[in-house]
Write a structure and sequence with these properties.
- The structure is a single chain.
- This protein is α+β, with helices and mostly antiparallel strands and 102 residues long.
- It has a domain of 61 residues.
- The chain is built from four helices and two strands, in the order E-E-H-H-H-H.
- The protein has a two-stranded antiparallel sheet.
- Helix 1 runs antiparallel to helix 4.
Length: 102
């Protein structure tokens, strides 16, 4: 880990090269975000976003890092994960966002 490592905008921990990481489209590709802005996140942070919010919710209400950080469930996750080392990863349990509304 070095001072030059990128920082995850969700949990604000460094992302060293050996950490699992991925790009998150702020507006989901299926909702018009193809070619739009992306942010580099820890894989565990990215998984938690998608376990918490639907593509429609992401596009409509959570298309910024600030909005994601303010979501109550993600706030709880951020408090928990920020106490872990930057390379920490664990499986994210299946979708927990409740019944889907159609």
């Amino acid at each position: 880990m070095t001072d030059d490592d990128p920082v995850c905008p969700l949990c604000r921990r460094p992302i060293p090269p050996e950490a699992r990481q991925s790009l998150h489209h702020l507006v989901p590709k299926l909702r018009g975000g193809k070619g739009g802005p992306t942010v580099l996140l820890h894989q565990i942070c990215h998984n938690e976003i998608h376990a918490t919010l639907s593509e429609a919710e992401l596009a409509r209400d959570y298309a910024t890092v600030e909005a994601l950080r303010a979501h109550p469930r993600l706030e709880t996750f951020i408090r928990w994960v920020s106490k872990r080392p930057p390379t920490f990863h664990s499986k994210t349990p299946g979708a927990r966002r409740g019944p889907r509304r159609r």
